[in-house]
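Archive entry. Fields below.
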Amino acid sequence: MTGAAAIRAALVRRGTELAVLLFAISTVLFFLLRLSGDPAAVLAGDEANPETVALISARYGLDQPLIVQYWRYMASLVTLDFGESLRANQAALGLVLERLGSTLLLACLALAITAAISVPLGAWLGFRPDANARKATNAVVFVLQGVPGYIVGLLLIQLFVVEFRLLPSIGNQGPSSWILPALTLASFLVPKMVRVVAANVSEAMREDYIRTARATGAGEGEILMNHALPNALLGATALIGTQFAFLMSGSLITEVIFAWPGFGALLVDAVDQLDFPVVQAAVFVIAVLVALVNALTDILFSLLDPRLREQGR
Amino acid sequence: MSARPATGLLPRLRVWPRRAASDAMLIAGLAMAGLLAVLTLLFGLNPPESAYTGNLMSRFQSPSLGGHVFGTDQLGRSLGARLAAGMPWSLGIALVAAIIALSIGTVMGLIAAWLPGWPRRVIRTVVDTVIAFPSLVIAVTVIALLGRGFWPLAVTLGLATWPIAARVVYAEAMSIVKRDYVVAAVLAGVGPVKVLATHVLPALRPTLLTMFAFTFADMLIAESALSFLGLGVPLSAPSWGNMLAESREHLVAAPWMMLVPAGAIVFAVVALNLIGDGIAASARKRGRAIG
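PREDICTED_STRUCTURE:
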């Protein structure tokens, strides 16, 4: 398979998944909203009077037959029209897109921290199979894996904000306020990535080409840096796609803890206030983002891995 | 294929735990989980009065062996009692969600492994699609519509998680259905449901047990995350996530209000991870690779 064909295949696959996903989510949302009672009443909120409910019902065409409603709803989604936010007088999609940059900044910082910690630590763990320090590190990683990210976030606040008063903990006020949220979000991924890199390195160390490299007199450091690690990282690259979805889950919580102005916090707020246009727009943007990252990872992976480049799969 | 349900694609670290360590891990995990189960049955289902009624004279007491072992909160309620009262919520929801996820996942995985053609294609597409999407986003959105409470939460988490179980079961079952004794049973005219139930399912047992422990742990984390966001169990219920959410406003005055539920969550998750890794390791020892 050539590079171009691989890229096309990746785009088609992820594009199909995205279409199926968006269709399914929209349909489920549509029917759940109607199953759970009068959607006009839900949209209007708890304290609304009957006139408001009737007004909303007419405004959203909720007095029409179900199939007509569904058709209109789908048609408006195809044209990216999610309607206006019920709380802020703004287009829901615009509200979400405004916050895209903040969420991406946090995600990129978290990925960078994850890589900076898990690549060297994982390489060391996988490379030196018999040190006591390794066992101890493994035990620590094992326990850390059991510490949910939001607890890490609270502990960081306790330590750096409450005890030492070193760092700000609320909102985006420049680089010093990025540190704690980025560390918190990274903590969702680090224990896993350490284990993956370690497993991949230790697996690579058993491969034939390592033995060949040793036989030709390559030093241990050279073997790790030139042979084992590149292969191990290739495996880890393929995981970025799946882990990005996980990262988005984590950013919901991280953004709420640190009042970070991203769309994760926006989604949680919108759910809390039953602001469905915003919920739908946020879910849509997240779905597109995840699909995009997955497609990019597929492409990157097929370009990086010489085995895929030559043989195809 | 991975035995780690939450992530699907991540391989477990194979070189560790070692054989000797695997039994110790399993025993330690079971002991910790047993302790939680006993505490839940003893105190959780019938929590002491002090879990709900506070005493303003004794608010913000730090943990001490003489008084309240886990300290008290902003209303003077005993955190130990609240921890116990939260067990049926946090552990119960996680347990039910894990059972739902594994039941649906097992059935779907078996169907996909047994029926080539469109059933397999449809199931695999659904599974791949859902796994690629942030599960917390699905859960948050569905909860917006279903409302809060024990059952909506358990069902939502179960429904958002079954594809991970389905993928593991599918991969494992694909190799099992090709085994000679399964082929022989089919040739002997045994019906598909019976073959799957009596020949394929038992071979999946270590995988399912491992996955159950990990899924239970992940559901516990997810439940407390949702409660922490204020989208989980009713705010009056002292679930561990709700306790954490409350503690945020008192980090300066009473850091133990955060540390106590956080410690409980970590304790339970580590126990379940120990059990999962222990089962996986001992299954590997007997020559059955799970991870």
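CURATOR_NOTE: Chain A has two domains: 3-97, 100-261.
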